[in-house]
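Encode chain A's predicted structure.
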Amino acid sequence: MVDETRRVRGTTEHEVGPGDASRELSRRSVLRGAAVGGLALPLVAACGSNEPDVPAGEVTVAASDVPVGGGTIMADEKVVVTQPAEGDFRAFSAVCTHQGCPVQTIAEGTINCPCHGSQFSVEDGSVVTGPATSPLKTLAVTREGDDLVVG
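Encoded structure for chain A:
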């Protein structure tokens, strides 16, 4: 048997057996792994999550801006306000529960997400068409004169 001893930079001598060289990590391998991991993390995060964002604080909208049988999307505030029937106002998160995309349209009684086609009811935020399996998060809405306050 051949006695192999190798000095590894920054360490003391140790015995290296057959195949042990493949277990050593080079500085280049470590840096490459860190770079790939650092690039992959934002890409994975960009795919969204199942936890929808909810608005911070109160959001106000004029009741006259919310059509009967439809609604209004306030994209910057991540809020949807609907009026399924005259004088009956509802509010939901405007973030799709499938992968966190913002919903973009309201048509024919549904709140619609363009990313994967999920549709939610204007009445209660429930899923009408998947792939989403969870309803939109319901938010409190109160009427104050001619305005609706969400939050």
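The longest helix spans residues 27-46.
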